[in-house]
Amino acid sequence: MTFEQIFKEIQSKKYKPIYFLSGEETYFIDKISDFIEKNVLPEDQKAFNQTILYGKDIAAAQIDNAARRFPMMSDYQVIVVKEAQEVKDIENLVFYAQKPSKSTILVICYKYKTLDKRKKLYKTIEENGILLETKKLYENQVPSWIEKYVLEHQYEIDMVASSLLTDFLGNNLSKIANELDKLFISLPQKTKITIEHIEKNVGISKEYNNFELQNALMRKDHLKAQRIVNYFADNQRDNPIVVTITSLYFYFSKVLAYHYVDDKKTVASVLQVNPYFLRDYEETSKKYSKAKLVEIIALLREFDMKSKGFGNVSANAGELLKELVFKILH
Fold first, then answer.
1. Which residues, at least 6 apart from 291, have a Cβ–Cβ distance to it below 8 Å?
2. Looking at the structure, do residues 29 and 115 belong to the same domain, yes or no?
3. Domain residues for 275?
4. The whole model's pTM is what?
């Protein structure tokens, strides 16, 4: 089952005896476990019927024993196992999973890892409970996730604002959701979120960010590009060079790929980009030849290594970025 299907069932009070939540994207794991923890039991029943366990402190047998207890004056007891990836003998939970208690909702948060599909525990939970394996979204998938999240909270967001958030926060959904939630507090519902809102509430400058640097390089606007890198050099803590290089690498890689797509009608799906930004890729492809783009990508790799200390004796991040942008433009 997908995250959306699982969450919808839980909201409808259709519970399974075991939820094994695993994988790299912890946002989805936390969303399900937090909802169950906060909403399944009324407050007056939680003291006796809700237990939080931590994987580094327990073994599988203790989870088994807790899950077999009967609830007190309640239909259910809820057991949430956090940091379950620290349980060394997790596979021994198979004995409980073979016949789980119908009055227990056992939530296992197995972050950053997944169960071995070849082993019995995986197959048993698949038969008797819910297995969720989460994966990090690719950055090109994040803007659409942002739009959906915003709509669910009865707001709107323009394309540039969602791209700016993605560029600043990457694919860390927990951070993005946290920043959006803070925005929702300060704005009335049905507001369309713009870059002005982002700048004021999230702390991203609408003039000095990686998105604007891309635009300056796209237009070969030397003066604007220089202003931005000077600002980055003076504010390195808020504008780490590794994030800028990564952003530029993905952008110029897609521009290079644009050159090789014969059917421009399909280019958005081939490049996996929002059609709204296709004009930017088209404009950049006119200003940078295939050979120059290959050179830029090699430069980005070289300066990424230099920023990490390889082949670099004394230049700081600001100096490296200035040199990199100069070479991209010349």
1. none
2. yes
3. 210-329
4. 0.75
